[in-house]
Amino acid sequence: MSDGIEGDASVSDERERAFNERLDRSLKIEPTNWMPDAYRKTLVRQISQHAHSEIVGMLPEGNWITRAPSLQRKLILLAKVQDEAGHGLYLYSAAETLGTPRDEMVAALHAGKAKYSSIFNYPTLQWADVGAIGWLVDGAAIINQIPITRCSYGPYARAMVRICKEESFHQRQGFDIMWTLAHGTPEQHAMAQDALDRWWWPAVMMFGPPDTDSTHNEQSLRWKIKLFTNDELRQKFIDQTVPQAEQLGLVIPDPHLRWNAEKEHYEIGSIDWDEFYRVIRGDGPCNKDRLQTRIEAWEEGAWVREAAAEYARKRGAQSASP
Amino acid sequence: MKKKHEWPQWEVFVRSEAGLAHKHVGSLHAADARMALENARDVYTRRNEGVSIWVVKSDDVYATDPSESEEFFDPSEGKSYRYPTYYHVPEGVKHL
After folding, report:
1. Mutate: best of B27, B38, B48, partner A, most A CBs <10 A
2. Which of A27, A43, A44, A273 is deepest in the core (most CB within 10 A)?
3. Beta carbons of A207 and A234 less than 8 angstroms apart
4. Any idea what DSSP says for residue B8?
5. Alpha-helical runs (H) found in chain A
């Protein structure tokens, strides 16, 4: 303390050096390790947004639980949506290790200050949409998330290992729905095509803005919070999904889609980034509805949280008294 | 006022099969220990990952300070004689 400002600065330089050294050696940063404020802030933002996406993501599919076409599909969908709740919990827990209470993160979502994945602002109009979400949205999520299992922040990386294990069931059950419909009656085939038509571009946009416009890319790559750029991940998704669409006998809604034999990658038409930013700003088909549903669930559940806390307090008081 | 009702945080430990030790798997919020166990079952053992669960209030966990790790773990450094490989076994000696 008596060293004054100069002393403090050299202490923080020393900590920063140790932090960077850990990153360089690919050692995980753990909650009790010193970290720069900006690193902490970026992680809280990214992990809590990821958590919000899992929770809001339950809504479009939850919409079809009561109307699933068979008891088996209903059981599968229930299990899938329950997994999403679990993923939200793992991620909120990981974010809490950075010192931000969960209630604070939830409040930020409800106040419209925190974002969640824009894809969930699109509606699920018919049953094939549930298939398209599992196949495309969870498929894109897996590509995004697998590298995060190796990210620099320990609790985030570990949460992601659990999530990725469960996510592949989600993608396969979605593909299975699409396969069944695509090989069903002409009407069912048309349902599958309609779902692909509406979900393809939003899924392609899930990887975020192009590298040239992405504000977080460079710093996050340096911190090893991100290991690949948005465009690299997007390309991977396109390359793996286009052949699957062919196998389903469905057509990707992009007249400019073509195989580039030289680069050994698919090329797509231009992405409508205006739509992307419009939906992020709150003008998607379901933004208001999604947020309102979350706020109502939170407020209507308040009495349960309070009653449980009070019950625990009373029981604690009883067992403490002689 | 709201803050008062935030449920405490618990650390969850799961024994994956009989005979193995409990291992830390994550954390969650619950009003009391019973609820913590039930939530832990629902969140961390949905795919038969466990046969037994422990929960401990996060506030009750004491941990070593990483900035003091070097001094703290220093006593176990440089004591190669604690390992069997330190010792030369003369040729022909068996069961050692």
Report:
1. B27
2. A43
3. yes
4. P
5. 4-24, 37-56, 58-62, 71-96, 102-110, 128-132, 138-145, 154-182, 186-205, 217-222, 230-248, 273-278, 287-300, 302-320
Q: How far is A312 from chain B (nearest CA, A)?
A: 6
Checking A30-33 for CB contacts under 8 A at 24+ apart, the result is A30/A154, A30/A155, A30/B66, A31/A97, A31/A98, A31/A154, A31/A155, A32/B63, A32/B65, A32/B66, A33/B66
Task: For tokens 């379901």, name the residue.
Answer: A286
pLDDT band at residue B75, thresholds of 50, 70 and 90?
A: confident
Q: pLDDT per residue over A111-151, tens digit each? A: 999 999 999 999 999 999 999 999 999 999 999 999 999 99
Q: What is the CATH number of domain B9-82?
A: 3.10.20.520
- Please answer yes or no on whether A93 and B2 come within 8 Å at the CB atom: no
Interface touch A30/B28, C-beta < 8 Å? no
Burial category of B77 from C-beta neighbours within 10 Å (exposed 0-12, middle 13-18, buried 19 and up): exposed
* Residue A310, CA distances (Å) to A277, A297, A317 in order: 44, 20, 10
* Residues A96, B28: C-beta atoms closer than 8 Å: no
Handedness of CA A48, A50, A53, A54 (dihedral sign): negative
Q: Per the structure block, which two tokens stand in for A248?
A: 């389903």
The sheet carrying B23-29 orders its strands as B23-29, B9-15, B52-57
Domain residue limits, chain B? 9-82
Mean pLDDT of B69-73: 88
Q: Do B31 and A93 touch (CB under 8 A)?
A: no
ipTM: 0.83
To probe the interface with B, which of A93, A105, A110, A163 has the most B CB atoms within 10 Å? A93
CA angle B8, B12, B16 (to 5 degrees): 165
